[in-house]
Every structure is written in C-alpha cells, then in structure tokens.
Backbone:
C-alpha cells in the first residue's frame, strides 16, 4: 500500500508525516529545500490536543522528481492551487492506471482539474479543515480541530484504517461540493488574518476584524443562495449563522462562541505564511472564487474583490492593518 504525498509542504508534510509516524509507507515529493530540511531534522508532528509524533531523518523518504510516484497506490495532492494543472500533467506521465488520487487542497475546482488530466486514475476531491503551521526544522503543528473530509468512494476502503491510526480519520461525503463551500467560507478569513499580521486567536478576538470576515461571508452566502447551493454544516453552528455571531460585541462573542476562540495560540493561516515567505498567495482560489461566482450570476462581490486587491498589493509591499482600518476599507 504505497502512499505518495505530491507537493509536500505544510499540509502535505503534516498529513503524510502522521501516516508515516504510525507505520504507513509514505513517499514525499516536493522541493529540494524541504528535502534538505527533513534530511537534517526529520519530521515532528504536533497538534493542539498534545500529540507529538516523530519520524527520524533516516526514515523520511523525500524525493524531488515526479518519477518517485510511479508505484503509488494512493496519491495525496497538496500543491498550491495555482500549481494543480502542472502537477496533474507531471503525474499523468508516471502514475499507474487505477491509482487513487485525492486532492487535499484549498479552493473548489482542483479535483476537476486533476480528473481532466488523470483519466486512467480514480480522482477524488478532499478537504483539510484545519490549520497547519510550519514552525521550521521539520516541525509541523495542527492548531485547529477537524477530520479529513473526502468524496465518498469504495476505493478509499483499503486506506481508512491507516488514516484512523494516524489520528486523521477520513470523513466521507456523497456530495463534497457543499463541504468545499463551507470550508471556503471559513477560509475567507485567510486574507483578514494575513492582513492583520496576528495569530488567529488574537485576530478573532477583535470585533473589527470579525466584522470584516462577516461581511465577506454574508456576501458569499447571498451568492450561494442565488445559485441554489446550501453550504454544509461542518462546525457546531450552521454556516448561515456565522456572520451574525461574528458581528457580536466582544463580551457576547466570547460567551456565545467560546469554541471559536479555543484555538491554539500558535495557529496562523497559510496565507500569512505565504506572505511571510514572499510567496504568491492562493487568494485567487479563495475570495477570487467568490468573485468568479458573482460574475457567473451577473452580480458583484465588492467585499471579496477588495480583499483580493489588498492581498495582491501586500504581496508586493507588506503592511499590517488594524481592524478599524481594514473595516473602513471594506465598507468604502
């Protein structure tokens, strides 16, 4: 049962690392920089519940070319969304027919992109609902709760036990699209968090930043209603109630939504990490997806469009925003 993680950065190293640490044969494929880091330090996988798993340097198989995936039975694709088409073309040249490929990526359309190119493999759409912080030195930390969501398919049966043993059970869904949109609604906080330059818990503790997220979510929910799509309930509260809860004064929010603040103090968003590292963000596949939905419906999405523009500007010229500044910008 050969498992390959393709595009092994933060999410890929964490998910694949937990599988490897609990006995599954995992090959990581990614950048030479990460290969060198793990060859020196190995993998350390921690989470907000206190888990602390390790894979020694000599036991981490990290390759840098697509050819290393030739014998894979299961491939977990964790590349950034902009690299999905390239990854699909690379994998199409090496994967054996019948291999199971799961997209564990942000955004809505990555599974479709993979399936269009990997016609001899079984391609499934998945979703990682939690945040992973790359702390450096091979240490990856899960800071928020959640299981792995994936499109239901009998092809996953041989692997379910391995994920369960790794502490990452697969939650299968007959219709994955409402789940993807629910996750995207949560990910609309990625640019707010990145622009705040604060840990997630600190950012969500401030009403002004929550109102920014509420505006982006409310705009998206209106568009989804016009499309006739109801996002899945992936947390304790239905997604349609989130904007109202987020707008509450701080003392009421702390009382009524304390679980939303039960976040590891280390937790950050991947978009914040990308800005810190000088990388292009996934903003076009998060808030940009909302803008595309609005265009399909003949409508507009000014709040999400503004967040896209602000992140693109910040990719070039870094700055941190206060909650009041960002809220005024979005309201304007």
Residues:
């Amino acid at each position: 049962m050969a498992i390959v993680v393709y595009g092994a950065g933060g999410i890929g190293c964490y998910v694949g690392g937990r599988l490897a640490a609990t006995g599954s044969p995992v090959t990581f494929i990614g950048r030479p920089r990460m290969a060198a880091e793990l060859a020196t330090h190995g993998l350390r996988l921690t989470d907000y519940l206190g888990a602390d798993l390790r894979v020694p340097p000599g036991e981490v198989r990290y390759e840098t070319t697509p050819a290393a995936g030739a014998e894979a039975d299961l491939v977990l694709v964790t590349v950034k969304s902009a690299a999905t088409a390239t990854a699909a073309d690379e994998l199409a040249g090496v994967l054996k027919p019948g291999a199971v490929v799961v997209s564990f990526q942000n955004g809505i359309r990555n599974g479709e992109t993979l399936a269009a190119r990997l016609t001899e493999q079984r391609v499934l759409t998945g979703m990682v609902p939690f945040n992973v912080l790359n702390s450096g030195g091979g240490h990856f930390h899960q800071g928020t709760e959640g299981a792995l969501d994936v499109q239901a398919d009998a092809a996953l049966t041989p692997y379910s036990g391995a994920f369960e043993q790794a502490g990452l059970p697969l939650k299968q869904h007959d219709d994955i699209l409402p789940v993807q949109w629910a996750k995207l609604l949560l990910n609309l906080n990625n640019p707010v968090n990145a622009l705040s330059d604060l840990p997630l818990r600190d950012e969500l503790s401030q009403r002004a930043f929550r109102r920014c997220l509420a505006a982006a979510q409310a705009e998206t929910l209106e568009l989804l209603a016009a499309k006739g799509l109801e996002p899945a309930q992936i947390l304790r509260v239905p997604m349609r109630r989130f904007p109202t809860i987020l707008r509450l004064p701080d003392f009421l929010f702390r009382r009524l939504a304390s679980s939303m603040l039960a976040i590891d103090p280390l937790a950050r968003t991947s978009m914040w990490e990308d800005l810190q590292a000088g990388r292009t963000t996934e903003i076009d596949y998060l808030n940009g997806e909302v803008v595309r939905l609005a265009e399909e419906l003949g409508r507009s999405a000014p709040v999400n469009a503004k967040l896209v523009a602000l992140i693109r500007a910040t990719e070039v010229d870094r700055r941190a925003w206060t909650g009041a500044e960002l809220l005024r910008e979005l309201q304007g």
About this structure: The longest helix spans residues 207-227.
